[in-house]
Amino acid sequence: MATMNPHITERRHIPDRRAGVMHTSAQRMHALDWIAMVLMIIGGINWGLVGMMNIDLVATIFGEMTTASRVIYALVGLSALYSIYTLSKMAGDRYPH
Length: 97
What we know:
Number of domains: 1
Shape: elongated
Radius of gyration: 23 Å
């Protein structure tokens, strides 16, 4: 037991990769960020279906231009606007002036 494997002993002194990660508000996703992302995915799938197969899934489920479908469309649009804000906030955190 006079010698130990040097690779094992050196490895103990390497800091954990996760320890150096800074958790800023731009890197953590809060509930509103998740909701916005889910709504944008729903909107993207809906537009993909409209473009490829001429099927408006929101209108099929909730009715064409009913109050419920208009609320869904509005929420998808608001989530896209919120995501623009989030993106600009993330870019500001990454590239400070």
